Amino acid sequence: MCGIVGYVGPREVVPVIIEGLRRLEYRGYDSAGIAVGCAGQPLELRRAPGKLRNLEEVIREHPIFPDAKHGCGGTWGVGHTRWATHGRPTEENAHPHRDCTGRIVVVHNGIVENYLDLKRELQAEGHVFVTETDTEIIAHLIEEEIKSAADSGKTMLLEEGVRRSVARLTGAFAISVISADEPDKIVAARNGPPAVIGLGEGEYFVASDVPGILHHTRDLHFLGDGELAVITRDGVHLTDFEGDQLPLKIQRILWDPIQAEKGGYKHFMLKEIFEQPRAVRDTTLGRISLNTGTVFLSEMKISDEEFRDAPRIDIAACGTSWHAALAGKYMIERLARIPVEVDYASEFRYRDPIIDSRSIGMLITQSGETADTLAAQREMLAKGLKTIAICNVVGAMVAREAHGTIYTHAGPEIGVASTKAFSSQLTALFLFALYLAQTRNTITGDESIALVEALTRLPGKIEEVLRTADLACEKLARVYSTARDFLYLGRGIHYPIALEGALKLKEISYIHAEGYPAGEMKHGPNALIDGTLPVVVLATKDGANHGSRLRYEKTLSNIQEVTARSGKVIAIATEGDEQIGDLVDQVIYIPQAPELLLPLLDVVPLQLLAYHIAVRRGCDVDQPRNLAKSVTVE
């Protein structure tokens, strides 16, 4: 996930772009760069690793078009703030990227999955690459298209070069392109990641997200997949990738700046719940092959032999991340056939765990700076383990000290109660489980392909749950917002999701809630059930999995235990399950999916239920009392 800002107009370009990038820095902050054009001159580029302030310092030391007013001129340009996917976060790999001539410049958000094949083809044509990124090949593709036309005695405009180039890209991308040969023009194209065009008075903008340009204009066109925009001082010309003209659909945005950052949602938490399809997609992008089912985890300094020889995986985490770890245990043991031990990070070092130094340690943390998790990591390192971090923040301490990192690419999570970070952690754990299974040869190629295909379909299924469950949960909140207690039940991999659902409700609504293994009801919790107790039961099933069907049947028995004692049952069930509707008070359906991926669908209604109950109770959803986003002290 990266931030893009572009501008064409009468103002000084650099301040406009820098301010826009500052408002989008939440989208990436491991490097930043800017490219500015002035008619009759080469494009000027400035780039820097690290946060945006480093780029500003570079510009101060090396002004762009220094003869212009106020030390920085130009009439059009693009800027970028990066969250690294391909290539280290260095100045060399920072965007914008140039072609061989230096006259075409590209900024890019997304991943080009076939970049290696394209790179080899372009190298055979004489192109020389200077970065580790997939983005650089886009600039070279455009150069090659325009050059081929010129060799045939034809003149090709920049937009046609872009159109022909994006037709050859596989993956997800939002790009903005400028050329020194075509002043006051930006060509933007989208296939996946968001992009928005802003229309001002005699000036025009492009950005990855609304906050980057809303302080300049409120008239916006949200670029759709397969759309290409040519932005000049004369206006915006919109076509599809085939070149057919499309109408602009201008929306007048009335949000204030804070609302814009929330994307129009009432709370950050709700926005982040609805960002989960993108978070899952971004965590997956560039890490799988649909052709072979292979998982690629590039940032691993642990050999295949060490993974094969490891007798156990030891995971430590806190809070929501601990629930993800518990679900990950089921994934890893099921696919890779290796024992997994899951600890609260806050307890790990105090119990003096018995550890084989050949084991692999894993730490799961959104911030990468959680004090207990860092302490657990150092205990693992002291006992001779190599460690892997699952983390959402590039360059965080846990990642710096690990032997391998799986960045979740969920983007900044503002709400204290974690939602999209949890889903992206589950995704990362599933990828790791599949990677380990392939390394240890405990899964066939056909099985891998089927699971990878199912994973790629998951974001669409999460979107489906969001469409149907939001209103259903809002209605349930009207009924149950005055409840004093809740019970959440699940079996197998769904038990950790029951724990997570209970935690979400506790965190933001201040209602007491417990998550329990459904099979343990007879061992105490049945005593709590009366006519006022809502019981949320995860009763989904994977029809192709015998174990899942057995779990489902046992869960139905637990539901009957609750209803026999007058408890109120809210069930999360799989589409097509007509049987369960007769047994419970309310049911929310989710799409079918393989057993190990169902938790990513299970959890969405639980998050929405907690959110709507908290709103009805008048609670501070984004900043619940006594809690902080990152726990950096014990």
TrEMBL record:
The answer to keyword Cytoplasm applying to this record is yes
Q: What is its EC number?
A: 2.6.1.16
The SIS domain, residue ranges: 303-442, 476-624
Q: Which domain of life is it from?
A: Bacteria
Q: Which GO terms describe its biological process?
A: amino sugar biosynthetic process; carbohydrate metabolic process; fructose 6-phosphate metabolic process; protein N-linked glycosylation; UDP-N-acetylglucosamine metabolic process
Q: Name one GO cellular component term.
A: cytosol
* Subcellular localization, as worded in the UniProt entry: Cytoplasm
Catalytic residue positions: C2, K629
Q: Identify the residues that the record assigns to the Glutamine amidotransferase type-2 domain, covering every copy.
A: 2-234
**Function statement:** Catalyzes the first step in hexosamine metabolism, converting fructose-6P into glucosamine-6P using glutamine as a nitrogen source.
Q: What is this protein called?
A: Glutamine--fructose-6-phosphate aminotransferase [isomerizing]
Its gene is glmS
